[in-house]
Specification:
The structure holds two protein chains of two kinds. Chain A is mainly beta. Chain A is 0% helix and 54% strand. In chain A, strands 2, 4, 5, 6, 9, 10 and 11 form a seven-stranded mixed beta sheet that branches. Chain A is globular and about 40 Å long. Chain B is mainly β. Chain B is built from no helices and eleven strands. In chain B, a hairpin with a 6-residue loop joins strand 4 and strand 5. Chain B starts with a strand and ends with a strand. Classes of the chains: A mainly beta, B mainly beta.
């Protein structure tokens, strides 16, 4: 079974902190994605990566950055956390030519 | 106009009912259609996918695509309390080289009552 693992289920951080969310997949997938999910707004793409060291902005990249140093790991960084970044964060991966996205269990981040 | 429209519900039905969940999309270039199920406090998981007009069945689930109307549906027969979840439609271009992004509906929250 494909496994996408996010480092934390729940996180509470203070405003202004630098926050790292880690995602690891074990199926050698080329593409990896970071989404946030909010009630009434659905899934919104923050960043995605189709290869090591490659990244592309999604629909809402402001306030975020990403890092992909190894194929299996994709990190989301909140440079200076703000309360409007309180959300559920979901990581996903896909094979190059396949469409099925495999999701991690999500990280519920609260910024206080 | 949003690229994908999906009524968020909530939808509440009695056990055993037939459930119909729907999405409309605006770009006729989209050719790959998926339904995901998301249980509370979990990530979405793929239920079904199709790239052709018509019906595709998998057990109690049927995915229907009408490309002429740009309308996709998911039917659940003999619904069970375990089907209570949020159902998200997702669409994309057929060829991965064109665009690797999935376009997501907002999701419809379904509750099946015993």
């Amino acid at each position: 079974d494909v496994k996408v693992t996010q480092s934390s289920r729940y996180l509470v951080k203070r405003t202004g902190e630098k926050v790292f969310l880690e995602c690891v997949q074990d199926m050698d997938h080329e593409n990896m994605f970071w989404y946030r999910q909010d009630p009434g707004l659905g899934l919104r793409l923050i960043y995605f990566s189709y290869d090591v060291k490659m990244k592309e902005k999604g629909d809402i990249p402001e306030g975020y950055s990403v890092s992909r140093e190894k194929k299996e790991r994709f990190s989301l960084i909140l440079e200076s956390a703000s309360t409007n970044q309180t959300s559920m964060y979901l990581c996903a991966s896909t094979v190059q030519t396949n469409t099925e996205a495999f999701f991690g269990q999500g990280t519920r981040l609260t910024v206080v | 106009q949003k690229e994908v429209e999906q009524d968020p519900g909530p939808l509440s039905v009695p056990e055993g009912a037939i459930v119909s969940l729907n999405c409309t999309y605006s770009n006729s270039a989209f050719q790959y259609f998926m339904w995901y199920r998301q249980y509370s406090r979990k990530g979405p998981e793929l239920l079904m996918y199709t790239y052709s007009s018509g019906n595709k069945e998998d057990g109690r689930f049927t995915a229907q695509v009408d490309k002429s109307s740009k309308y996709i549906s998911l039917f659940i027969r003999d619904s069970q309390p375990s089907d209570s979840a949020t159902y998200l439609c997702a669409i994309r271009f057929l060829n991965a080289g064109n665009n690797r992004k999935l376009i997501w509906g907002l999701g419809t929250s379904l509750a099946v009552n015993p």
